[in-house]
Amino acid sequence: SQQGEEDPQALSIQEGENATMNCSYKTSINNLQWYRQNSGRGLVHLILIRSNEREKHSGRLRVTLDTSKKSSSLLITASRAADTASYFCALNSGYSTLTFGKGTMLLVSP
Amino acid sequence: GAVVSQHPSRVICKSGTSVKIECRSLDFQATTMFWYRQFPKQSLMLMATSNEGSKATYEQGVEKDKFLINHASLTLSTLTVTSAHPEDSSFYICSAPGTGFMETQYFGPGTRLLVL
């Protein structure tokens, strides 16, 4: 299956703490993307990391990619209550279609 | 960034009726759009790829006669759930790839369908 597998399935932290989510996959990829979904809403693209990249930053987000282990991590630093959402990794294998993982539900308590 | 809208945002219908969901790219043209289905606390499952001016490409296991897709213009794709049943109740989300390498996708806000 091309589907990514995120872990943990759910994560509960306090404001100010860092949140780390992981994504593992089985096939080769062109790039890996992370998306955020607030409850009952559409997805918002957060960051894209290509297969030849190892780390990428965007504001409080840091994404790593290890193609030898077929895994990626998303780190949110200094979390805020507004970061509460579900986070999905999505695999792009060279076409415009994406295959989504099952997601991590993040709860950030004030 | 690019904006994709969906209409309606939620719909309740009786079993056996058909429901049409619209997906529009508001400030860009999209020759391709994607339709996903998402059950509660589950991942997004790609149902079909909508292609402007040609037939949609359906994923394995998705009934093309039940989920009719029409992509009549560069800014509009529609998904019609025909003869809806309670098991079709779900969250339907569309997306369109961005320009350039078309690698990222811009998502609509989703349509919550409840079939009674």
What would you note in describing this structure?
The complex is a heterodimer of chains A (110) and B (116). Chain A has strands at residues 5-7, 10-14, 19-24, 31-37, 43-50, 55-58, 61-66, 71-76, 85-92, 99-100, 104-109. In chain A, strands 2, 4, 5, 9, 10 and 11 form a six-stranded mixed β-sheet that branches. A five-stranded antiparallel β-sheet of chain A has the order 1-3-8-7-6, with no helix packed on it. By secondary structure, chain A is an all-beta fold. The mean pLDDT of chain A is 93. In chain B, the strands form two sheets. In chain B, strands 2, 4, 5, 6, 9, 10 and 11 form a seven-stranded mixed β-sheet that branches. In chain B, strands 1-3-8-7 form a four-stranded antiparallel β-sheet, with no helix packed on it. By secondary structure, chain B is mainly β. The radius of gyration of chain B is 13 Å and the shape is globular. Chain B starts with a strand and ends with a strand. Chain B has no helices and eleven strands. Classes of the chains: A mainly beta (110), B mainly beta (116). The interface between A and B is medium-sized, with 23 and 25 residues.
Features of this protein?
heterodimer, A: 110 residues, five-stranded antiparallel beta sheet, 11 strands, B: 116 residues, mainly beta, four-stranded antiparallel beta sheet
Question: Summary?
Answer:
With 110 residues, chain A is mainly β.
* Residue share in β-strands of chain A: over 45%
How does the major sheet of chain B shape up?
Answer: 7 strands, mixed
Order of helices and strands of chain A: EEEEEEEEEEE
Q: How many strand segments of chain B?
A: 11
Of all chain pairs, the largest interface belongs to: A-B, 23 and 25 residues
Based on the structure, what is the oligomeric state of the protein chains? heterodimer
The largest sheet of chain A is: 6 strands, mixed
Helix content of chain A: under 10%
Number of strands of chain A: 11
Q: How big is the Rg of chain A? A: 13 Å
Q: Output the structural class of chain A.
A: mainly beta
The number of distinct helices of chain B, counting runs of at least 4 residues, comes to 0
Helix content range of chain B: under 10%
